[in-house]
Structure of Putative pre-16S rRNA nuclease:
Amino acid sequence: MGRILAIDYGTKRTGIAITDELQIIASGLTTVDTKSLISFLVDYVNEEKVEKFVVGLPKQMNNTASESEIHIQSFLNKLNKAIPKIPVERIDERFTSKMAFQTMIDSGLKKKQRQNKALVDEISATLILQSYLASNS
């Protein structure tokens, strides 16, 4: 069984989370400069067995696509060309950034640490992956 890799796509930085090989636990992996995201993913899947990508689907409160969806679609096209054998699933990512920030507060991180946007992105990716795992269990 391969891992599931979640992506919280951003135009500047992208949060990455990964499951264990049994697809039980979601853990933050890293935050990647979006410009080098495809090469990072190609390198990663050459080292680790990845069964599926889960990419956040940003929606507005009225259930319409967010403005960032245009950028995500462009990324998905590039991803499909670079790594065509790994399927992509989308999952609603509304509130993940707010939940990530609250998680940082709840875990006792100091204000200076909570301003680390890269950490917020990584936690957001982890929340997307946890949500995916919960909805498919």
